[in-house]
Amino acid sequence: MLESRSTPPRVWLFAALALATAVVVIIGPTLFDRFTLNVLTRSMIYAMLAVTVDILWGYTGILTFGQAAFFGTGAYASAMVLSHLGASPALMVLALALAIIVPVLLGAFVGWLSFGHGSTPLYATVISLVVPIVVTQLVFSGGVWTGSSSGLVGYSGLPLGLPGYFRLTGICLIVTTLVALVFTRSDAGKLLVAIRDNEARCAYLGLDPQRLKIVLTTILAGVAGVAGFLYANASGVVAPENTGFVFGTEIVIWTALGGRGTIIGPVMGAIGIDYLSAQLSGDLPFLWNLVVGSLFVVMIILLPNGLAQLARMVLPRRNGEQASQPGCPTLTAEPAGNGSQPGNRVLAVSGLGKSFGSLQVLQGIDLDVHPGELVSLVGPNGAGKTTLLRCLSDGTEATTGTVTIAGQDISGMTPDEIVALGVGRKFQVASVFDSLTVADCLRMARASRKAPSLLRRSAMLGLPAAAADILRSTGLDRMLGRPVSLLSHGQKQSLELAMVVALEPKLILLDEPTAGLTKVERTTIGATLQKLTGELGFAAILVEHDLDFVRNISTRIVVLHQGKLVLDGSVDQVVNSEVVRTIYSGGAHA
């Protein structure tokens, strides 16, 4: 068990901001005139939308213009009930329910379209542009039900009055902001950053990024629907402009200028820019767009990271807690065990073939791997070694033949599903999460086994003994709070290996894990691999070019040449083989 006390969030700062905002919300109606109350009420509703955009774009990396469609759908669902059915307490509850349910259903559908298998970030952004247009056209064609181009107006809403709406929207904004801050700083919130940084690595840690993004889109659509309900009641009018992509683009701009990836920045950006626009449109009716646009340009030049950059200048961020500080961290070992039984095949490959068009990359590969074996896969460049690893770890690759892991055919299975069978893959270039700390990366590796908390940062980092040993032997146990972006190449390679081992796999696939490492680092990695296989019973397939390194640690060596398995034998058999000498011109390198 690896214990790490994470740097606590600035709770006092959040509490102070929340308290100050609550005071303003409570006493605001006695301080502001009706115009200001009206504008700030609308601005706070828009700020709720900006929070949802920030979670999607700033944290998860999904640039979306579609939140306006969910907002408008919620607003129209409310207004249609209030206009055509009435505003009794029961109907008001119905209006709120529909304002949530309809956007949630739409969000689930949009999420499925945007993040289904094979989608790309560009495709998702295009979908987010198209959906508001479609929703707007549906509003236009809705006739008396939607008010067509005139919208809906004159219906009765919540009997709160302007001060009541100001206070209600203020409370909703405070709650939304605090929940977003708590979530994005929790262990589960770090999953969003992991997806943004390296979606492929998430999949190879047993996570399903596509499903997570669909769920996130669906939930945030519901939040946008609540904002739409508040807007429909507070304004007493809904119009097609509330659903359009122009409004969606404005929200993205507010988020960017406020400082994406901060939550508070987009809230301040939405409120400040919307309020400023409202003031200038009255004072400078023909020039206000030019003034606001000029301010945007100045801010982009001077504060490219938005208004939140000012806060970073005043309150510089800490680089994370270092293990040398009192109370952090303590390393203890858990009992080892990976679930593989001696004698049982972990991997069985039969007649595997792979081609890219007319180019045959792999042909008729037959290979068995058992627990405790370290099988080195060697061959010249272009022999198909990395392609073979990809076929063993991704069942969606178009191949012939069969690949069976732990007795199960992996044909059609996605990488996260194959990880669940007990496969861990390390890439040639260290595949980690540069925006996270060392400890956070290791938590991501355990997320598929234990759901991370939605509310807090854990002070405990539970790791298998084998993964903890890698951290100790490489010194990473003293760098748990260090951002991964500050690690050296060799440290990133060791961290990725520890992340893979933290999955407790039966089979580890390693693509040149010592590439670019120093002699000392290579020796450490070699000793680690020998211990994982020889003492702990892991099975491993190692792609490597250094024949001297291979001969010292391998159980068997498999030789690939022109996509064919030409030799599979003991270290001595392969190293002394005439076939190897012929292929490698005397066997200097493999």
UniProtKB/TrEMBL annotation:
Region (Disordered): 321-340
A GO molecular function held by the record: ATP binding
Coiled coil: none
Keywords from the named record: ATP-binding, Cell membrane, Membrane, Nucleotide-binding, Transmembrane, Transmembrane helix, Transport
Transmembrane spans: 12-32, 44-70, 90-115, 122-145, 165-183, 214-232, 286-308
Protein name stated in the entry: ABC transporter
ABC transporter domain boundaries: 347-587
Topological relation to the membrane, as annotated: Multi-pass membrane protein
Gene Ontology CC annotation, any one: plasma membrane
